[in-house]
Design a protein that fits this description.
The chain is α+β, with helices and mostly antiparallel strands. The chain has two helices and six strands. About 20% of the residues lie in helices and about 50% in strands.
Length: about 160
Amino acid sequence: MHLRARTVAGTVVLLALAACSAPAGGTPEQISAWIAEQDAADQGTGTLGTATSRVGPGDPEPSAGTGITLEYDAPARVDAVRVSCFGDGTLDFTVATTSADDHGGSTTRDAEVTDVACGGDPVEIPLDATGVTAVRTTGSGADRTGAWHAEILGTQPA
């Protein structure tokens, strides 16, 4: 009788722990559908491009040069980057803009936003950058599987 009580108590503890566990995130099918929806959305005028990627808890920490880079043939003005994500939890985003300088070289400027709620409203990262030749975006810090999307907002000279 004593052993049975311990077994029942142990089962109750395991069930309680399972109920408190973090959700697994989106299924591969849900993530693919969300990515397809983002890619198919009409971005309208003022969009210089988009980047979308899957993300998961096993992803390496971002480092210099990682992420998705969009390059422009002519220098552009980038006003902001609108970021969103799918899944449970939050993501951190880093946006790096590369601009041509007056001496034939380039400069890179980073902007970050942390704890973007996945499934919530998109968040705009203001940049107000001119002469931009490339924008690199990275979403990281996932506790579960999901995806992220970035829309680069600005204008390109005619």
